Fold these 2 entries.
Entry 1:
Amino acid sequence: MSSSAPASSSSNSPLPTGTNSKGLGMLAHASIMMIDDEPILVEVVRTFLAESGFTEFVSITDPTLAIAAIQTQRPDMLLLDLKMPKVSGFDILKMVRQDPYLKMLPVVVMTSASDAETKLRVLELGATDFLEKPVDPSELALRVRNTLAVKAYNDRMAYFDPLTSLPNRSFLMHQLAGQVRRSARTLSPFSVLQINLDRFNKINESLGHRSADALLVSVAERLQACIRGTDGIGRPADQPGGNSLSRFSGDEFTAVLVDLPEGLLAGQVAKRLQDAIARPFHIDGNELFINASIGIATFPNDGDTAESMLRNAESAMRESKRIGPKTIRYFNSAYNRESADRLALESQLHRAIERGEFRLLYQPKVDLRTLEIVGAEALIRWQHPERGLLTPNFFISIAEQSRLIIDLGAWVIDEACRQMAEWQHLGIRDLKVAVNVATPQLAENRLSKDLKRSIGRHGVKPSNLIVEFTESILMQNDQEIDIAVKAVAETGVSISLDDFGTGFSSLAYLKRLPLTELKIDRSFVMGLPGDKDSAAIVGAVVALARNLGLQVTAEGVETEGQLQFLQSLGCNQFQGFLRSKPIAPQDFIALLK
Ligand code: C2E
Ligand code: CA
Ligand code: CA
């Protein structure tokens, strides 16, 4: 049995267990890497393994690349040739055993040398098993299966909780690290729910450990059933990419929600979990009632590493405990005060698009030299049936945590284009209209497609449309984002960088991406002209922008003093209450006249 469970996120991933058709269980999906300089032998083994039902086979025929490949691909086992040019199987085996993250990796050495001395040496170096060349197909299948079965068993001991059979905390850390990588790549949010039973210690004390354990098992079953019931595309819950439940510690469970059916939100799942647990349990002739407190953290807003996601979900859970039993709290501290509201808003938000409850207001963008209105920023509002007109602070971040933001974003683009066409029709001079976009809209090139569709439908000039990205979107330095941003630029719309200065400080991406405008965040404008730091920053940004051939717009201008200072710097445009708040389209026309 493995005594040192690989605890780091970069160690081998635990093998799943379960069943499949060829009697191999999930072992069929274990990844087997073969390192052999003889391509024909590799093909023979590949064929044998495929016939035996193994589906994941990778091969390396250049032994100098082997270690790097093992480190990046993390196979579940190695089939290793001994005699290879430049780097021998001995060398590779030695390196594997010296690598702290690979030292537990099963290695089956393939050798035609049947002399005892070679075998002894290989065993001393830590080989798991031998396979004689030429390879016999049934022998190969047997060795591979046994080797993987032992690994799966070790993984099970290291990664699963014996009481509830749920994955344990080590497994969770692995899974979260993988999920963070996947979500960062696919720009898809996921949530961590930290679930803690209320008053569990009391039950433990009054009923004894045996009943308390039985209760934990039943709780785990109900939670698990709920989680499985929420899987979006019916993936088994313990496979990568699916929703999953693990036992975090004594009476604490962690759900990772990756894939929810359209319209279902993490907060609603949390509520279902609470309701499932609130039904009475019958344990050893007692009827037991128990509640759970739940904290929710959502990637990437509430954390961008496995550790920070867990920490923040836990802190939200502790906060919910503090408030009282059966509470749900979001980590996102700004919304904590309104989390009850938020739950209600979440579910109403879904219907709001269909019911046409959103509006766009327009805030004028003013040329700093002529003081003429040259454009507008479209800002969304929700005309809520009971609560009146809501600003985006109340709902954009909620929408961002589900697929809703994509539909909402598409609506904003289409409505802005419709409005531009209407204004054009009324003979109003060319106005440039800016829309705000959120990160998830960039996934799968959605944004450029949505832009093209609306531009075509309403017959507006793409050059009159601006999309505003935030610094954090562009800073991700991700290929998919770069491609998506370039696709947006190719539609002919301009790209503006919103909230400039609030993100990170590296400016490399300013050159890399096809930007046309920087918007200086209101927090810098606020201190002008008196605050020296703000003045220095704004001055530097204007100079930088000019250097890069970008236009600069200052946001949140409220005073004459700010206006004059910005004029003196040579800033191009401003927005702010000094000229106008965001207003309805008909008021905008009035303002133009
Ligand atoms: P933002 O893009 O930075 O928009 C500027 C915000 O500053 C607007 O708030 C605007 O009303 C406010 N503002 C403008 N001038 C002044 C001023 O002189 N003083 C003060 N105190 N505030 C001023 P709003 O409309 O509440 O929007 C807040 C944020 O919501 C926006 O920040 C933007 O990030 C987001 N947002 C708005 N509409 C959309 C949308 O359609 N899609 C997405 N994804 N986000 C949106
Ligand atoms: Ca904006
Ligand atoms: Ca802004």
Entry 2:
Amino acid sequence: MFLEPDLNHTVNANAQVGWIEVVCGSMFSGKTEELIRRVRRALIAKQEVSIFKPLIDTRYDKEKVVSHNKNAVRSIPVNSAKDILIHSHKAQVVAIDEAQFFDKDLPDVCQILANQGKRVIVAGLDMDFEGKPFGWTPHLLAIAEFITKVHAICVKCGSIASYSYRLTASKERVLLGEKEAYEPRCRQCFYKDKKKEAQVYTNGHTTKHS
Ligand code: ZN
């Protein structure tokens, strides 16, 4: 469990110290629940919190960060990462969900906010359905002070799952509102079925059968 850093131990306790936290993982790993847990703790402490998600994510409710267990907190849908800056002036804590769907400005926006002394909490998928790094999440992992990788449970064998296996044939990277089209899988069960689609060599190169 992530616990907020003890800022009383910083050199100047009165200084506003900002940082970036990333919560990443596969689908069904509880990323949004973890984001909401952190937001709720901040709200209980009467901190000013702003929550954002990309407008592209139209599942469920347009104005809430909604996780799969319906544990919702009201949020602002934005068209672009830069729009977060416009709505964050008063915030001490800025929470951003579905980071993988934001544009290339997201890492810079997070840096600006953290450098202003804000706590920035970002949640997102770290890998796409092919097991490849997704969007700007990998970049955020590099610049974050704190990283939490959460896991789902493999539906095939019950191991720890960090992959989102797509059950449909679509090759579109973004397949929204179709969570039944995915299942969480461990490394072994993910690549076992990937092998049926493509021949995977041990050196990491993938050759598609045509
Ligand atoms: Zn498995």
